[in-house]
Amino acid sequence: MSKSAYIKLVEASTVQEITLDDVKSKLDHYIEMTKKTGQQLAWSYGDVSFPYTLIEKEEGKGRWFYLKGNDPKLYKYIMFGVGTEEIETDGETKQQHYIQIALPDDSTHGDVGKANEFCKFLAKEFKGELHLFNQRIMYFYPRK
């Protein structure tokens, strides 16, 4: 059975609504950061830190995309999607946006490690509430 992690956008998050393009732009920012780190180290760190190719199928346009590993022995797939859920706070029903990161059944240990890394990066960028694959919760927004 596949595993999923969620980044939920709460009131203290930088944005309240999210699109797939927002997620892609943050991943592009991650790729650029690691490439620059690699240039400083005179090493192709960008290729090692992001060993995937982003693929968006026509049927998932605007809803989901996946990363396909460049080395199938080490990395296979990580899926990203966006959605909304209804939550009730103080007797009021509101829409809460989230990012879902899914690992298929045949994921490698490399996929799990990279998915956790991407989850933490995205949660920090959006100041969200990260629900990890192991059901633990990390808070990346200011709490009272």
From TrEMBL:
It comes from the Bacteria. This is DUF1885 domain-containing protein. Pfam families: DUF1885.
